[in-house]
Specification:
The protein is of the alpha/beta class. The chain has 3 domains: about 55 residues, no CATH class; about 325 residues, Trimethylamine methyltransferase-like (TIM Barrel), CATH 3.20.20.480; about 30 residues, no CATH class. Helix 6 packs parallel to helix 8 and helix 12 crosses helix 16. It contains 17 helices and 20 strands. The radius of gyration is 23 Å and the shape is globular.
Length: about 475
């Protein structure tokens, strides 16, 4: 089946990126700020300097990890209707943006700090929107202790959204609590492992380093069968070389190192290769999702992931302008949408504001509606003798029309996509004209859409897990 894909690297360039990544891992190594993970890797064959906390990873460990990593798995949903089968072909799964530090208030249009109630609203909205396949908490809960805000976010999300949830993990204790909470709903840890209800973003700190809490949390997650996304955010000119090739090889090496950690801790654990790497804005130092180079870096890292046969998150979906709407212009928005052609299984970013610093309920609607029309570009097409219709061409003959031939009437609805015209008004670039209608839709959904509540006993047990974690943190 023919599917449109964006290709950037030639085969010899893929090989050069791969061999250079292996050289980085074996000669330079990675910084891992966790004694327990250092010990684990050392026992498995890596060269460990406990003083510098640098681990040098031989090619054999990388190859073994690539062999062990599953190429297919399923990410579950609470109602069973929104399970995500990996790989996603041909159309990627799209999710919301993650952990913004503020939101645009729906009533006032002003920036404000966010709470668990806001996460619940985003979760219910994501649950209702047809264009959203999984949910990341768009904003941060500031009404809970900072050390466990991700645990609270997961618990709120699981009560307000039936779709698979994406979290971050701050520590081993954080990860254990998240696993316990999800296991309550899944029916135990064994059932959770078979069909995980959540996945976790475990970002490498570019260049080539892993924080103690996050990497120890990653180890706990993979042991429980929770899919881990090893997102590299290599920023060219700041945390990676300013050259495109340098950014690509840095992101690839980071992903391979993270994969080795996952497969050493739990052979066969589901692991997702990921890059959200771009150049920096040379004036502000910010990430630049809309840069012309961003989709090319995404295409290259997507090619490398495909080379390894790993599930992939290299796509990005969501306008991420400074205000709700589509304040970006054609080429800026094109750079973001082109990442969806990078052989990605997932894309996230819907509902984000200001390069993911904040969130907006109405933006989540706008991004979802845009995706419903855009994904037509990514569907499969059969290229065969049958679909070439040589017999029909012969029947119609030279200089005549196919419009009245029965073949056209029989096949046009299968071959052609007709955009939802009611949603085209949500696609005006350089405009915020669609925002009032998006606000109205948000209000209607939050008023009318309900999620089947969890059993009172499950909620009670979950609240107790969080309470005990808060007490342990306060005591320490």
């Amino acid at each position: 089946m023919a599917v449109a894909k964006l290709k950037f690297l030639e085969k010899d360039e893929e090989e050069l990126i791969h061999s250079s990544s292996l050289k980085i891992l074996e000669d330079m190594g990675v910084l891992i700020r966790s004694p327990s993970v250092l010990e684990m890797l050392g026992n498995a064959g890596a060269t460990v300097d406990t003083k510098s906390m640098i681990v040098k990873i031989p090619e054999e460990m990388v190859n073994e990890s690539l062999d062990k990593a599953p190429k297919e798995f399923t990410m579950g949903s609470i109602d069973g209707k929104h399970d995500l089968k990996i790989p996603a072909r041909p159309v990627p799964y799209v999710g919301s943006n993650g952990i913004g530090t503020y939101m645009i208030d729906l009533a006032t249009g002003e920036k404000r700090r966010t709470t668990r109630k806001d996460i619940a609203d985003f979760a219910r909205l994501a649950d209702a929107l047809e264009g959203i396949d999984f949910f990341w908490s768009n904003v941060t809960a500031y009404d809970v202790p900072e050390q466990i805000h991700m645990v609270h976010a997961l618990w709120v999300a699981l009560q307000n959204c039936t779709k698979n949830y994406g979290t971050l993990t701050l520590s081993a204790d954080d990860a254990k609590a998240q696993i316990e909470l999800a296991a309550l709903i899944a029916g135990g840890k064994d059932q959770l492992k078979k069909k995980p209800l959540f996945h976790s973003l475990c970002c490498v700190v570019a260049p080539l380093s892993f924080e103690k809490g996050a990497i120890e949390g990653q180890v706990e997650l993979v042991k429980a069968g929770i899919p881990v996304i090893s997102m590299s955010m290599s920023l060219g000119g700041m945390s990676a070389p300013v050259t495109i090739a340098g950014t690509i090889v840095n992101a690839n090496a980071e992903n391979l190192a993270s994969l080795v950690i996952s497969q050493t801790a739990a052979p066969g654990a589901p692991h997702i290769y990921s890059s959200e790497s771009t150049p920096i804005n040379m004036v502000t130092g910010n990430i630049v999702y809309e840069s012309p180079e961003a989709p090319l870096i995404a295409a290259a890292t997507g090619q490398m992931s495909n080379r390894y046969g790993l599930p992939t998150l290299t796509g990005s979906w969501g306008v991420n302008g400074n205000v709700p709407g589509i304040p970006l212009y054609f080429t800026e928005l094109s750079a973001i949408t082109m990442t969806m052609f990078t052989s990605t299984d997932f894309a996230a970013g819907a509902g984000g504001i200001e390069e993911a610093k904040g969130g907006s309920l109405e933006q989540l609607v706008i991004d979802s509606y845009m995706w419903e029309n855009f994904r037509a570009f990514l569907r499969r097409f059969e290229i065969s003798e049958k679909t070439m219709a040589l017999d029909v061409i012969k029947q119609v003959g030279h200089g005549n029309t196919f419009l009245t031939h029965p073949h056209t009437a029989k096949n046009f609805r299968k071959e052609l996509y007709f955009r939802d015209k009611s949603k085209l008004e949500f696609e005006a670039t350089g405009s915020v004209s669609m925002v009032p209608k998006a606000k109205k839709i948000v209000k209607e959904i939050l008023k009318e859409h309900t999620v089947q509540p969890l059993d009172d006993d499950i909620i009670k047990k979950g609240d107790e897990i969080i309470k005990n974690l808060e007490m342990r943190i306060a005591k320490n």
